[in-house]
Amino acid sequence: MTAVDPNAIDTAEPVEGWIRICPADAVPVDRGVAALVGSTMVAIFRLSPLGDGPEEWFAVSHIDPRTGAPVMARGLIGSVERAPEAIATVASPLHKERYDLRTGVCLDGQGAGLEVFELRIIAQELEVKLPSGGHRQET
Amino acid sequence: MVGQRFVDELLRDPTTAASIELTVIGAERYPAYDRVALSSYFDGATLDDLTISNRAELARLGVDLRLGWAVTAINRDQQIVELADGQSIAYDQLVLATGSTPFVPPIPRADSGGCFVYRTIDDLDAISAWCEEQNVEQGAVVGGGLLGLEAANALRNLGLETHVVEMADRLMPQQLDAQASAMLQRWVDELEITTHLGFATQTIEGEPVRALVGSDREIAAQIVVYSAGIRPCDQLARDAGLVIGERGGVVIDDDCRTSDPSIYAIGEVACHAGQIYGLVGPGYAMASTVAAGLAGESVPFEGADTSTKLKLLGVDVACFGTTNPSDDRIEFSDPTSKVHRRVSVVGGLVTGGVLIGDISNYDVLHAMSLGVMPSTNVGSLLAPANEGSATAIELPDAAQICSCNNVTRGDCKSAISEGCHTLVELKATTTAGTGCGGCVPDVDRLLQSELESHGVAVKRSICEHFDYSRQELFDLIRFHDYDSWATVLNGHGSGRGCEICRPTVASILASLSNGYVLDGDQAGLQDTNDHALSNMQRNGTYSVVPRVPGGEITPDQLIALGEIARDYELYTKITGAQRVDLFGAQLHELPEIWSRVIDAGLESGHAYGKALRTVKSCVGDTWCRYGVQDSVSMAILLERRYRGLRAPHKLKSAVSGCTRECAEAQSKDFGVIATENGWNLYLCGNGGRTPRHADLFAVDLTDDELVAYLDRFLMFYIRTADRLQRTASWFESLDGGVDYLRSVIIDDSLGICDELEADMAAHVEQYECEWTATLSDPSRLNHFVEFVNAPDTNSVPVWISERGQRVPSR
Ligand SMILES: Cc1cc2nc3c(=O)[nH]c(=O)nc-3n(C[C@H](O)[C@H](O)[C@H](O)COP(=O)(O)OP(=O)(O)OC[C@H]3O[C@@H](n4cnc5c(N)ncnc54)[C@H](O)[C@@H]3O)c2cc1C
Ligand code: SF4
């Protein structure tokens, strides 16, 4: 079994460009999953459509900013109605702070935010891109 | 605490935060925690629960936090402070918030082994470790003041025979006069804490301690806790030559500056106008003064009100204003209900008072003593609250609502009219209710009545996505027979829901027996613990709690649990509910671990759900000489019947085999005590933070009657309670109390008993162990893969070893 130490600074080869994760269908709706991109832990959310809108996808850091535990994918998703639109959110499973899934900003208090990652679906495959020049996992 | 508040206030303004280089030095190893709630640490609260400082946030703002280091000297000439390890840190402005230390009376052998003080988390850890290691049976507290009584209660909760010695002729001599103290004494006596008044401790006997010796008697005790007052921690300031008050404390002016203009002092270490404040409220006010001062504003500290309202040993106590022997008094005393209420009146105006056992109308009387409202109808306000007469009195805006943070009703009202329409917003904006939290119900009531008067529709809606209370939502789901989140949301909600309504709907669907909780769209509704059918711990790993019905377990099962724990290196602890809790399992290990638990003949304990926990039991007449019924069999019967039953909150229960009550059934949501003729049923008790003795509901029941009443009671609670409302507070909210409950459950006054029983029958019929169900379907195991794209790779938590077991690193 391979190990990823969440508290170690990434020393692995930098991971560049779009990385294939899994078939888009393997991600359940409205319940996050975690993925490993290089040694960065990413939480991926696939949200059911709002009204007539499309399905929405998000990728953010899997690390809970407040405690450093790798758990964000296990948080509850939801929305906050803030005119003009609804903000998609995830709440930390540990202390329940909510984060804006698009920007990563913490909506409860002034705590640190979540890092957000780019994500796309190409030929039914889900892909994630880390910021260029490799990436250090924040803990 | 006050230091932390200062830091929070200072950094609240982003420009200040960016321009200031802040170093925080604390002698304790932990980030700031809520000392006021210290005793709850013995009641199950963890250090995390008590922590009030957000380390990640401080780090983000660039605060240099040095914990576990004491400042040893202040060098005012060079403007540096020195640390114990020889380092020095420069300052432009220095804030002292060193608090106080408990005073240990100068008696021979005061520091023998087994003698402690009661001030810090470390003190509490040391006290419980000592009690355990030394098998302590008797304990004594020196000092019968507020903190002494709190310490005594803590010893009592540790199961000790507890004594309190007090030099004066009464308990809480500083705050209470003889009569009020006598009434408090009755409450204390009832708790079987022995009080020794007029007792001057002369020496400690033994090393480690064996007894406390006074002039006329000796009290056997293997632990002694001193609570004989506090002394400001002002040595640093003394050494540095700052001006010190007559009775200690660093002298400050209205800006909280000491005699050195670049040094401030706040909190319990400060002495303002000759007074040292031993309460957080005034300390917080000083913190605001200094934070404002550093940001260039002037918010002078002009002294503070020392009124207090608190729950001491489960008794409501309030003292306010001042009282002199020559004042006129209006009093009400009722020894049978142990209530004493007195106010002092001078020239027709209320100046102060004391309330014991019943603190209704405290806010009105307190406001009168501060002169912010006229002293009218004092006599009828003082009469004890009788039903129906509930406060129709309009308090003035100047009246305080939150004493910890000195927030007035007027502050709250203006925040509400400026748009704070939820409790969360109101608390964040005004800080009301963010101290000890005692005033939160008042703040909420004020909010609701203000909204009503502003014409804002007051909906007890659970969140922004549903315009319904939990009870209304339950009725809707039951009526329409909904079986998925999508149908509920489309029918009655909006948006995507949130972390409040999703678990609420999940729980209602589960209470109404809608199958495996992680199937279909219910998977995305489950709260943190239900999400993985195990309890998430602070480092993201889980604990596993198998069901041990009634606390009865075979040696083979116990061995199997031991082997599982050993194989997976799980930290093992016996819980208060007669079960075994195995900590530190990772998400991907859960299926294997639970499968071994099930192979050992055990099943899911549902410790992760807001559901029935355990039905605890004593051994009953099978073994016990006193037992009159088989309490174990009854506990097992009840636990098997109600296992897996999801409810608005967790449910605890116990069965005792006779009136000696070894299983503590009266502190449970439903408790059963055996009698010669059957079972007595007690409902709606609670332990934990706000203990409540259960009400005796029915006596001498047969087994069948007991089960029928419980079926109805539990389903009635599940139908009508608010989200996260325990049975105790649900009961308090029922108009008509226990008589009403009897009319619904025994006399079927609402005509719903058949429905309630049918719902319960459906639950019993459809119950399945959720882990057996998980393991029986390979597709359900996908929920327990950590990384979707790397099923064989897992994160590695950082562990350390403590007393031979693996625990998360700090
Ligand atoms: C059991 C208990 C119950 C209480 N209940 C209530 C209540 O109901 N209501 C109420 O208003 N108040 C209550 N209090 C009092 C309240 O806790 C204090 O008023 C409050 O903690 C004071 O805050 P402070 O910051 O001045 O001191 P503290 O909270 O004591 O903080 C001072 C800190 O400074 C550190 N320190 C000291 N010297 C140094 C040094 N040289 N270098 C570095 N660090 C140093 C100390 O280790 C400590 O951590 C209670 C206290 C206790 C112990
Ligand atoms: S409650 Fe009664 S029967 Fe049960 S152990 Fe205690 S004394 Fe024995």
Question: Which secondary structure elements does this structure contain, and how are they paired or packed?
Answer:
The complex is a heterodimer of chains A (139) and B (810).
Chain A: E1 2-4, E2 18-23, E3 33-37, E4 40-47, E5 56-61, E6 76-82, E7 85-91, E8 98-100, E9 116-122, E10 125-129
Antiparallel strand pairs in A: 2-10, 3-4, 4-5, 5-9, 6-7, 7-8, 9-10
Chain B: H1 2-12, H2 14-19, E1 23-26, H3 47-50, H4 55-60, E2 64-67, E3 71-75, E4 80-83, E5 88-90, E6 94-96, E7 100-102, E8 115-117, H5 121-133, E9 138-142, H6 146-157, E10 161-166, H7 178-190, E11 193-197, E12 203-205, E13 211-213, E14 218-220, E15 223-226, E16 230-232, H8 235-239, E17 250-252, E18 263-265, E19 270-272, H9 280-294, E20 308-312, E21 315-321, E22 328-334, E23 339-346, E24 349-356, H10 362-369, H11 378-382, E25 400-402, E26 407-408, H12 409-417, H13 423-430, H14 440-453, H15 470-480, H16 485-492, H17 501-511, H18 528-531, E27 535-536, E28 542-544, H19 555-567, E29 571-574, E30 580-585, H20 590-599, E31 612-617, H21 631-642, E32 651-656, E33 670-675, E34 678-683, E35 695-701, H22 703-720, H23 727-733, H24 737-745, H25 753-766, H26 770-775, E36 793-795, E37 799-802, E38 805-808
Parallel strand pairs in B: 1-2, 6-18, 8-15, 9-10, 9-15, 10-11, 17-19, 31-32, 32-33
Antiparallel strand pairs in B: 3-4, 4-5, 7-16, 12-13, 13-14, 20-21, 21-24, 22-23, 23-24, 25-26, 27-28, 28-30, 29-30, 33-34, 34-35, 37-38
The structure holds flavin-adenine dinucleotide and iron/sulfur cluster.
